[in-house]
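Worked example

This section walks through a single chain of length 184. The input is the sequence exactly as stored; nothing has been trimmed or padded.
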Amino acid sequence: MPAPVTNTAVARAARVRLMILDVDGVLTDGQLCYGGHGEVLKSFNVRDGHGIKLLREAGVEVAILTARKSEIVAVRARELGVERVLQGASDKLAGFEQLLAATMVSADRCGYIGDDWPDLPVLARAGFAATVADAADEVKAIAHWIAPQPGGRGAVRALAEFIVRAQGKFDELLAQHRAGVARA
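Given that input, the structure is written out below as tokens.
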């Protein structure tokens, strides 16, 4: 169940200039499917992809930080225009700091969405900590905002709308989309 939206969550989301996304359990439902030759298959939600585009249209840079390595993650990131992708980051906090340095964004202006214990150090450091409906309880306990959807089922789309609304850009972006002039 999503946590009630607080003024603190809105204020923190309003400051986000960089949103970093975990992959497994956030952009996917956390399942790993293996093909006949050992390749890993992942399923991504189109609504989450649109959410990433909305963030970019609103001027929020998006990055991906994941402990696993997968070519399909790189492919999906390219499709969505996400340039900063850090895979194989077994120390997610070090990866987070690396992304902050590369983008010159301070931690208090950075958001992070994760779903399980490896994400806890990053969630504790990020200015805006978000999670999915089916996250570990310990993650939910420190999140500023909890998506009503589980990972891989539109949680990132909901997150994007929350941030865009908090930043006062929702109406402008909606008007652009209605007019067919959205820029991604």
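What to look for: The domain at 7-172 is CATH 3.40.50.1000 (Rossmann fold).
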